[in-house]
Amino acid sequence: MIKGKTAVIIGAQWGDEGKGKIVDVLSENFSIVARYAGGHNAGHTVIIGGKKFILQLVPCGVLRDGCCSVIGNGVVLDPMAFLKEVGTLRDAGVKVDGNLFVSNRAHVILPYHRMIELAAENAPGRVKIGTTSRGIGPAYEDKMGRRGLRVADLLDLKLLRKHIENACREKNMIAHALFNSEPLDPEKMYHEYAAIAGKIAPFVRDTATFLHNALKRGESIVFEGAQGTMLDIDHGTYPFVTSSSATSGGAVIGTGVAPTAITSVIGVTKAYCTRVGEGPFPSEIHDKQGEELRARGNEYGAVTGRPRRCGWLDLPLLRYSAAINGVSWWVVTKLDVLDELDEVPVCVGYKIDGKATDEPPAQGCGYDSIECIYRKLPGWRTSTEGITEISKLPARAKEYLKFLEDETGAQVGMVSTGPGREQTMLVDSFNAEMESLTGRKTRLTATP
Ligand code: IMP
Questions:
Q1: Which residues form ligand 1's pocket by a CB distance below 6 Å?
Q2: Pocket test for ligand 1, best of 131, 241, 274, 281 (most atoms within 8 A of CB)
Q3: Of these four, 27, 359, 385, 433, which has the most CB atoms within 10 Å of its CB?
Q4: How far is CA 144 from CA 141, 174, 263, 273, in A?
Q5: Whether the predicted pLDDT of 221 surpasses 60
Q6: Which atom of ligand 1 is nearest to the CA of 136?
Q7: Percentage, residues of the chain above pLDDT 90
Q8: HSE of 436, CA atoms in CB hemisphere, 13 A
Q9: Which residue among 132, 142, 245, 284 is best mutated to probe the pocket of ligand 1, counting the most ligand atoms within 8 A of its Cβ?
Q10: How much is the mean pLDDT over the chain?
Q11: Which class does domain 107-202 fall in?
Q12: This prediction's pTM
């Protein structure tokens, strides 16, 4: 019998909504934080001891005493990136031993995945996705092609050698034939990975069983989404997507917990919209206002440093996101970035060929014919910095949030106005729901 309660935290847009901070704030009361998709293409910015950390693979729960972190089977793990991150955390005095676990079924990213991705992205005639060049897509391709290496296999050195030899033979031939790439040396690769297998081993577990047992004991789990709904391999703006299930359903497949074990889904959305990389973006701003939002919101990719494209809040997109994920609550981040605007345009509907629609096109090129219908809401022109209660927000900021709720059918449970834990406002009913999941109220402790 499952006694424990769970919440999934997903990005409602194209990633970078600020999920890291939200998971960090909420993980105070959850026993376990579990990642279920993506790899070190994600970048969750968290501040520890006044120092900025960009967590790419390790779930944010690692920063909370008494909270365990799990990297689920749905994640693709670059062992070198993982060990580097673990090293940085250890150096900063963060505990990672005995509280951080990696699924034995997660797939491993190897150097040929990066080689193929880099070559393919730059090859003539290919659709450029603008990936993070971390080998994520090719690693998932191997997983689905049933020729991947899983973490359990990485620890089995005989199998590892055979796998690397076979894979390198195949990948070197393909990369040379298609992209004229220099071949990778399998012997060198084997020795590099065999040398670190022992360092990965202490973290490895059957994490699905670990999570089941925790739920049976009545412990609470928060699933930390990576990327965002519109980057989901099935539901996003294909082919300009990542290669995993970034939506809430991914939490089930990517960790091995049952769908019936999901209690609540929390959708994180910026008060506006951003996207990195190529692909459709209906509410993108192409003039000076876009640059101003980028400057005010410091909109540069956490992983690649690329400038993010900026746009207005897109309500048809959020309605879609709410439906696909089953969003029960919104967390609205970066509200302060809009503080100085006289009026705030919001995309309230799409028109395609003159007809109103809420249905996102199945084809990437279908987005070209979207005409956004905008409504301008009055700006609040007051700083929201330092406000810690939603009731104390300027009236027009509250109206903006209410408009979002009315137009999407889900309630705003939390609002964030900066990177610190204390720059967060909680709605009482949301906090009550979190209390019903974890047995405790969330306190907004100051950033240590
Ligand atoms: P990939 O995940 O590296 O294959 O990149 C595919 C697309 O997803 C590219 O447009 C990336 O910019 C985007 N992407 C991947 N991870 C993130 C993220 O964490 N935040 C925002 N965009 C991302």
A1: 14-16, 41-43, 129-132, 134, 136-137, 226-227, 231, 240, 242-243, 276-277
A2: 131
A3: 27
A4: 5, 18, 29, 32
A5: yes
A6: 4
A7: 85
A8: 7
A9: 132
A10: 95
A11: mainly alpha
A12: 0.96
Q: Which of 16, 24, 232, 314 is catalytic?
A: 16
The residue among 192, 201, 38, 15 whose CA lies nearest residue 107 is 38
CA of 322 to the centre of ligand 1 (A): 21
Going from the Cα of 297 to the center of ligand 1, the distance in angstroms, rounded, reads 19
What token pair was written down for 411?
A: 């309630």
**Which residue from 426, 18, 61, 448 is spatially nearest to 219, judged by alpha carbons?**
61
Does the domain made of 6-104+206-438 have the CATH classification 3.90.1150.10? no
Indicate the domain borders of the chain. Answer: 6-104+206-438, 107-202
pLDDT per position as a tens digit, 122-176: 888 888 899 999 999 999 999 999 999 999 999 999 999 999 999 999 999 999 9
pLDDT at 399 over 90: yes
Pocket test for ligand 1, best of 23, 41, 44, 245 (most atoms within 8 A of CB): 41
The predicted-structure confidence for 317-348, as pLDDT tens digits, reads as follows 999 999 999 999 999 999 999 999 999 999 99
224-261: per-residue pLDDT in tens?
A: 999 999 999 999 999 999 999 999 999 999 999 999 99
What is residue 301's predicted lDDT score, i.e. its pLDDT? 85
Q: Residues 44, 113, 163, 212: which is the catalytic one?
A: 44
**Predicted pLDDT at 422:** 86
In the block, residue with structure tokens 């993010």:
308
376: which strand partners?
Answer: 345
User: What average pLDDT score do residues 285-314 get?
Assistant: 94
Domains 6-104+206-438 and 107-202 in one fold: no
Q: Could you identify the atom of ligand 1 that is nearest to the CA of residue 137?
A: 4
Rg (CA), the chain: 22
Nearest CA, atom 15, ligand 1:
41
Specify the ligand 1 atom closest to the Cα of 244: 2
